[in-house]
Amino acid sequence: MASMRMSMLNCETTRTTDQLSWTRNLSGFTTRTKQISVCFDNKAVFNVRSMRVVESNHSVDFSSSVNGSLNLDKQTSFGVQASNNSNDDTVVTLNARRKTKIVCTIGPSTSSREMIWKMAKAGMNVARLNMSHGDHASHQKTIDLVKEYNAQFEDKVISIMLDTKGPEVRSGDVPQPIMLEEGQEFNFTIKRGVSSDNTVSVNYDDFVNDVEAGDILLVDGGMLSLSVKSKTADTVKCEVVDGGELSSRRHLNVRGKSATLPSITEKDWEDIKFGVDNKVDFYAVSFVKDAKVVHELKDYLKRSNADIHVIVKIESADSIPNLHSIITASDGAMVARGDLGAELPIEEVPLLQEEIIRRCHSMQKPVIVATNMLESMISHPTPTRAEVSDIAIAVREGADAIMLSGETAHGKFPLKAVNVMHMVALRIESSLTSSTIPPSQSSASKSHMSAMFAFHSTTMANTLRTPIIVFTKTASMAIQLSHYQPSATIFAFTNEERVKQRLSLYRGVLPITMQFSDDAEETFSQALNLLLVLGNFSFMSAF
Ligand SMILES: Nc1ncnc2c1ncn2[C@@H]1O[C@H](COP(=O)(O)OP(=O)(O)O)[C@@H](O)[C@H]1O
Ligand SMILES: C=C(OP(=O)(O)O)C(=O)O
């Protein structure tokens, strides 16, 4: 077992002083810790402590599938033991904990109370509501259930992400899937409510203006494809290139072209208002093409007094030249590979994924890798090896979160899919060779004291192989720490429920709510107590 050191820090540190050793009784067990104290906010003295910790990371327990939240099962969670080393004080053992977060799309397979609870247990960190499907009443039910779940725990949290429909083009409803054969003629019409063997509606009136003869139409990112042959005032006539089943409300993309609609449509504004009313945690904004739309949404949120973060979905060909300004304006990004791979050549997708993750890291913004991650598990109980490798790549590239779509929304094996994602992420993370010093591209700017503090705390924590405890009111210090990707967990204590909700998207951060006392000593003790009570640390033997 490797020895580790647990440190505690706080934001806006301005100076450090040496400290004495400290003895106190914690939950009936005597512990001794060494402490370093730091000043923060230019006035209060706050303590940075250290404690001997042992990590049993050689035996990752895959049965302890947790949503990055605490595991109450003492067998599979943490333990604390007395150190034999007289210089080192309390020793804690803990099993590795998944750092990469899991976003799950909620749909018919997972919207029941029972399934929300089971998904949370299996490892869901963020519930995504796709506004392209369902109505406000059905999404309201999900929101209420997630909130009910959250209200039960200080140490477990599912955040809510509302994904706007955006200016997407979709085929209309069909009573039964239509089988399209290669070479057959098939039409899309802007007339509403049409569904026959050779024609269906599209939901976008300018479709006829946007497409030209010779364009290639992709259904569901290329599951079916058609070549445009001609058009009339209301109908686009095509020939099927790759056939298959066309079901209701399928995505339509024109290879290489973005729709000319605004990124936030009238329906989106209604959905955004619904999100404000329900205090969701994140918007995932579809088909963002430039930073202007992000500013527009942020202005609206400010006017509405709504503290909701904006995640931009990078999925439109038009967004690529504006990546820097879009991500700068946002609070994070999603690599929405479905539409991205339809609007741009598919071989560009892995390169863009890497680039978007790199840019988000450089701006300390969270990034989600989405779509097709375990696609085969929509209908099969086990993933393809390529899907497992895809998850591994996203984890290695440093994504904050990885996303399940149809796998959990309407798949046959939603819990198994979450479990596979959890296990693969955990295994890959355990194999990552963590250098002691955080990556050089993330070196701390000397002008930002908090960045320097996070950088050096990470170096210390990595050297000593210890988790970190951070106390944060605004999430900022926990986010800074997450950015440097320490090798062990960041326990983020906050007295703000919304901060806890938000932090559940960030890699390596385990948010816990707790009331802060005016007395920093007491706050620290309370936090340790809470970790003990919640089963993060349990003494295996006392001294
Ligand atoms: N709230 C919902 N109600 C009904 N079906 C849903 C819902 N959310 C997702 N789905 C189903 O799951 C599929 C995959 O989800 P997702 O990838 O989010 O959708 P899409 O690719 O259609 O944008 C959808 O195409 C739809 O069939
Ligand atoms: C996540 C995506 O968006 P949606 O599921 O809303 O189409 C995507 O296109 O990859």
Automatic annotation (TrEMBL):
Keyword annotations from UniProtKB, A to Z: ATP-binding, Chloroplast, Glycolysis, Kinase, Magnesium, Metal-binding, Nucleotide-binding, Plastid, Potassium, Pyruvate, Transferase, Transit peptide
Pathways involved: Carbohydrate degradation; glycolysis; pyruvate from D-glyceraldehyde 3-phosphate: step 5/5
Cofactor: Mg(2+); K(+)
Domain Pyruvate kinase barrel, residue spans: 98-418
Magnesium listed as a keyword: yes
Location of the protein in the cell: Plastid, Chloroplast
SUPFAM superfamilies the record matches: Phosphoenolpyruvate/pyruvate domain, PK beta-barrel domain-like, PK C-terminal domain-like
Any matching Pfam family: PK
EC number: 2.7.1.40
Superkingdom of source: Eukaryota
Catalytic activity entry: pyruvate + ATP = phosphoenolpyruvate + ADP + H(+)
Domain Pyruvate kinase C-terminal stretches: 466-532
PROSITE patterns for this protein: PYRUVATE_KINASE (PS00110)
GO molecular function: ATP binding; kinase activity; magnesium ion binding; potassium ion binding; pyruvate kinase activity
Protein's UniProt name: Pyruvate kinase
Biological source species: Kingdonia uniflora
